[in-house]
Amino acid sequence: MPPAPDAVTPLEGEICIDASQLRPGVHVRLPVPWIEHQFMFNSFVIIDDEQVRLIAAMKLPQLFCDPRRCTVPLPQPGEAPAADDGGGDHQAQRAVERAAEQQRLAALAAAGIAEKHERSRVMGELRGRLDKAQQHYLSAARAVGGAIKGFARNPRESIKQVAEVSAESTAALLADPDSAIVLIAEKAHDDGHAAHSLSVMTLALLLGKQAGLPEAALRALGIGALLHDIGKLAINPAILRSDERNRHEEALYQTHCRCGFEQAARAGSLSQPMLDAILHHHERFDGSGFPDRQSGSAIPLAARMVAIANRFDNVVNPVDHRRAMSPSEALSTMWTREQKSFDGTLLQLFVRAMGVYPPGSIVQLSDGRVGAVVGSAPAARPLSPKVLIYAPEVPRRQSIIVDLARDCALTVERPLRLQERPAEELDYLLPRRKINWSYLPAQP
Questions:
Q1: Between vectors from CA 118 to CA 115 and to CA 123, what angle results, nearest 5°?
Q2: CA distance 314 to 138
Q3: How distant, in Å, are the alpha carbons of 41, 166, 223, 260 from that of 163?
Q4: C-beta separation of 364 from 413 below 8 A
């Protein structure tokens, strides 16, 4: 495999160095393809003498260094201390030791490269699951979009289509007990109703699963979630898109709950929990919601679940994308500032199901690198998810995945907002970010 076109050319700010200048604290970039060496990154600051020995053993014709990234003064070429070979016996002994050391370093290098190939295999499996998830999502989006648009004309057929999507999605979730969800901030297509409905269904099912609902109840919850905003079809889209509705517009907006409920009830084939989700998904636990200002446990269970899912998706995917929060920010906001609005037990279950850093979140790590969360953190270490690292020198198909629960040297520094990240970074980390919500089994 030949190196990338610019691999043997110094990048801006880099200089050529040789192996004698390598020290802990010196930055180095290896001008070889990522898969052909044992280090996690092509470009890094050396942390110990072992790394110095491993790099020197590669016998590369050139190395690059960015002095601005060094944490120690860069030595001049040839500053390595001269070895004292002593007499003939000592020279023979040193030759044996050097041969043994070369074998040890070669074995370490081989093990590191083998681990990289394993990472590549894992990434291939991840891509396969994403492809399958994308197919499921696009099929569901078409079905739900058609069902919503045709609801007034043929509600029974629409409900049948929605029920099939709910059943398939519930089965997918239950088939993999370690499932997680991937959030892609951009909507999958122009049909905002369908995209939002699918998001809310997925989130509600995840919460329902965490709460231990049986499969039949999950399917009913999914149908109610998919139809929760059916009443919005009768409202002027300009009012729906507005973030600053006047009193009259707000009153008109609030009619969508009862209007949707009445349409769905006339269809005659929906159970009470499904109708509850449509009518009461804007009720609030403290009685501040609408349309009936219900409070506490008087709000039906399905409606309490859909309320949490609906609010989360509206915060992460608002009408004005400039106000969008990262998934972790949304969870924090709902838990710290809006907790009184929701069933506290269900909200706690939702946070537990999503994780502190939900899959799909963009995060900055403690070493300054940026990555996308691709696997949920274990329960024992909720701050340590699996992260795919942004490393443009590494081909996307061989992307680096770090399990922070195992690699204790790295931690998540803070979550980042998608709209504040450059396009090339998002294209690398979330190439399918137009999928919206989809199922993704956690990494093994």
A1: 130
A2: 21
A3: 47, 5, 6, 17
A4: yes
Give the three-state DSSP class for 364: strand
Q: Which two tokens stand for residue 291?
A: 């349309």
Q: From first to last of its 444 residues, what are the pLDDT tens digits of the chain? A: 444 444 678 889 999 999 999 999 999 999 998 888 989 888 999 999 999 999 999 999 889 999 999 999 999 887 655 555 555 677 788 888 888 988 998 899 899 889 888 877 877 777 677 677 777 777 888 899 999 999 989 999 999 999 999 998 888 777 764 444 543 333 444 456 788 898 899 899 989 999 999 999 999 999 999 999 999 998 998 998 887 899 999 999 999 999 999 999 999 889 999 999 999 999 999 999 999 999 999 999 999 999 999 999 998 888 777 777 878 888 989 999 999 999 999 999 999 888 888 877 899 999 889 998 887 788 788 889 889 899 887 887 778 888 898 876 789 999 998 778 898 998 888 776 544 443 333 333
Distance CA 28, CA 394 (A): 16
Find tokens 């898109």 and name the residue: 241
Token look-up 């008109």 returns: 252
DSSP H/E element including 44: strand 43-45
- Which residue reads 């537990």 in tokens? 352
CB 303 within 8 A of CB 282: no
Taking a C-beta distance cutoff of 8 angstroms, is the pair 331, 354 a contact?
Answer: yes
The SS3 call for residue 287 is: coil
The tokens describing 47, both together, are 């942390």
Separation CA 324–CA 162 (nearest Å):
28
Distances from the Cα of 20 to the Cα of 28, 49, 284, angstroms? 12, 12, 67
Which tokens is 298 given? Answer: 């008087």
Spatial separation of the C-alpha atoms in residues 271 and 269, rounded to whole Å: 7
* CA atoms of 430 and 440, how far apart (whole Å): 13
| Pair 214, 230: CB distance under 8 Å | no
CA dist., res. 121 & res. 114, Å (int): 11
Q: How many CA atoms lie within 13 A of 290 on its CB side?
A: 11
Give Cα 162 to chain centroid, integer Å. Answer: 27
E strand intervals along 163-222: 179-182
- Reference 57, options 12, 107, 115; nearest CA is 107
Location of structure tokens 């000592």: 90
Sequence-distant (≥ 6) Cβ neighbours of residue 407 within 8 angstroms: none
